[in-house]
Amino acid sequence: MADIKRPQMKPHVEAIHAYVPGKSKSSDGRALVKLSANENPLGTSPLALDALGRTGKPSDYPDPDATALREAIANAHGLDPARIVCGTGSGELLGYAVQAFAGVGDEVLFSRFSFSLYPLLPLKVGAKGVMADNRDFAADVEALLDKVGPATRVVLLDNPNNPTGAYLPRGEVVRLHAGLPADVLLVVDQAYAEYLPDGVDDGGFALAGKYDNVLVTRTFSKAYGLAAERIGWATGAPDLIGALNRLRGPFNVTTSGQRAAIAALADQGFVRDSCEHNALARASFVSAIDALGNHGLRAVPSEANFVLVLFEGGVSAESAMHAIAEAGYAVRHLPGQGLPHALRITVGTAGQMAEIADTLRRLCEGGK
């Protein structure tokens, strides 16, 4: 029988696996409280919700340049709106950064245990992903710089890191940038930056404002509680912003999303409340995990809105995930990221975190 002719997928595209979202149902179909996607447990600012209710004319296209939103972002962060581009989540902009500057024969560098999207981005353009060793679940500047070679075109750094929550301080980010060739793009992915303590800053904005090879990305999905609207943004040198504008869709951020993001920026009280709640609930949960250290449980220090719990004793991460699901919660198991012994647990309400901690305690002590 003759071979059937059909379009042939490019090998580098065929190597990409589809994104697997965090579970929201148990194996028997029960709805679970989703603490697997790092969403804001306080929801969304009332101002942003009100803006979403005033969608304007659905028949009209949104502002293709998100002009008012870029101006609001610039005012909030002391940036130049001309050096800002908005996207359908920061993930879209990360993809365009790789697409614009890497291709077949090039390399895209990132740390082990980085954001799960990073290994997929070079595959989409036929480039090679290169993974550097980390140190204590955080990016290791020396290891990254050791991997830089003639084919390196982009370095991706999530700071704070997802899924570990680790944070690379300003001096280390500056040192990483200083060690890169001027024609290598450093992308600092600050999706969780709002959760850092007051006054803590990795210096990404300053680098992006001074150098031609630094791009910083942020999102409204986490602390601002607008994950459903898919709004991200990036800032960098004019040539970098120009490259992303060439690749993005002309109407990529909806009218409702633009309005909601502007309103969310105006409600910094909600962001502060979200971050204060996160810090308190996270600290309490980490203390509860520390108390189970004699059973082999360990929490990786986190500056984000989740905690990576390591299971290094008699209780496995998989059995813990099932016990937590029985208690009514979905968390993230990470064997695909080289962490089969870990669960990433989003910080929910204080009561939710106490219930998960109690579930783990009973599991460790052999109870039910």
Automatic annotation (TrEMBL):
Signal peptide: none annotated. Residues 32-359 form the Aminotransferase class I/classII large domain. Keywords: Amino-acid biosynthesis, Aminotransferase, Histidine biosynthesis, Pyridoxal phosphate, Transferase. Its cofactor is pyridoxal 5'-phosphate. Its EC number is 2.6.1.9. It catalyses: L-histidinol phosphate + 2-oxoglutarate = 3-(imidazol-4-yl)-2-oxopropyl phosphate + L-glutamate. InterPro entries: Aminotrans_II_pyridoxalP_BS (IPR001917), Aminotransferase_I/II_large (IPR004839), HisP_aminotrans (IPR005861), HistidinolP_aminotransfase (IPR050106), PyrdxlP-dep_Trfase (IPR015424), PyrdxlP-dep_Trfase_major (IPR015421), PyrdxlP-dep_Trfase_small (IPR015422). The modification N6-(pyridoxal phosphate)lysine is found at K222. It is an enzyme of class 2 (transferase). GO terms for biological process: L-histidine biosynthetic process. Pathway: Amino-acid biosynthesis; L-histidine biosynthesis; L-histidine from 5-phospho-alpha-D-ribose 1-diphosphate: step 7/9. Transmembrane segments: none annotated. One of its GO terms (molecular function) is histidinol-phosphate transaminase activity. Belongs to the class-II pyridoxal-phosphate-dependent aminotransferase family. Histidinol-phosphate aminotransferase subfamily. Homodimer. This is Histidinol-phosphate aminotransferase. It comes from Aurantiacibacter zhengii. The gene is hisC.
